[in-house]
Amino acid sequence: KGLREAMLETVIPRGQGDRVMVVLGQHAGKVGHILQREPERSRALVQLERAGAGKVLALDYDGICHYVGGHEDD
């Protein structure tokens, strides 16, 4: 409570293979892992997990965040 969107910052994991959740767009709520980072373009290639059927997306850093939740099979 009391937080405004402008007060928040998206956290992008540092490592390859780290898990992220898509937070914007048609795939919002889906979980995947980083295949490749493109820091010069502020985006990452993300492969969606099970619910996304392995689809690979190029997503802006603002559209993803570090995911620390459980696996879809849990």
Automatic annotation (TrEMBL):
One of its GO terms (cellular component) is ribosome. It is found in: Nucleus. It holds the Pfam family GPKOW_C. GO terms for molecular function: structural constituent of ribosome. SUPFAM superfamilies: Translation proteins SH3-like domain. Keywords: mRNA processing, mRNA splicing, Nucleus. It comes from the Eukaryota. Its main location: nucleus. One of its GO terms (biological process) is mRNA splicing, via spliceosome. Belongs to the MOS2 family. PANTHER family: G PATCH AND KOW-CONTAINING, G-PATCH DOMAIN AND KOW MOTIFS-CONTAINING PROTEIN. RNA-binding protein involved in pre-mRNA splicing. This is G-patch domain and KOW motifs-containing protein. It comes from Galbula dea.
